Amino acid sequence: MSEFEELIDIMERLRGEGGCPWDRKQSYETLRAYIVEEAYELVEAITNGLPDKIKEESGDLLLQIVFIASIAKEKCQFDINDVINSLCGKLIRRHPHVFADESVADSDEVLRNWERIKLEEKKVEEANPSESKSDSILSGVPRTLPALLKAYRIQEKAAHVGFDWEKEDISPILLKIQEEMVEVEKAIEEKDSVGIEEEIGDLLFASVNLARHLGVNPDVALGRANEKFMLRFSEIEKMIKESGRNWAEFSLGDLDNMWNLAKKRVG
Question: Of 72, 118, 142, 178, which one is least surrounded by beta carbons within 10 A?
Fold first, then answer.
């Protein structure tokens, strides 16, 4: 028995008669939160560059897929082999430059071909109304993605079909950000709360565009900024605790000096 077969066997025992009450109770719906959580834990492990943790969290994420397939098998919908076969077929279809005689110039063309093939597949699906989906290029972006990551994926999808700023010149994006900042300031002056929210959204969307053009994942970048802030703030908390005084006893100038000292200490 292979390691993967053993994993499937373990899951079936957990879900079967005499198995684990908690595992037997789970459903598609109850697993949703765990799938998201495990994905983020894997992302965190990768961000921190911890191979052992990456291995562990990869296993936890794989478990969710096996769990879903086990539930589906019980419902006579599909099993893990169907999942694997579906994935293999998709990978082969969408990589004709590897598995067929098509040639590509670079990774950008690979992505454009991926979107083209995906749209062709959706047209075939339309023949079966029960499986028909939107033919929009953006329909593949999950609605439940966090907003920052969703903006990034939307822009990527649009860029794959050529709807994008020129790759070699970020100056129009910088001008767009300045333009959106002016719109934010105008909404603030007008005390337009709805407009402020809308314009800040536009400013963030433009900033995501800049990050993408510079080869930076904004979700990862913001995550690093969050961690950096927390580390420095924790250092300030230590200083205040060591002083024996309360937060209210320090002026904003005092706290700013502590912040600068924290930056020197922890980076």
Answer: 142
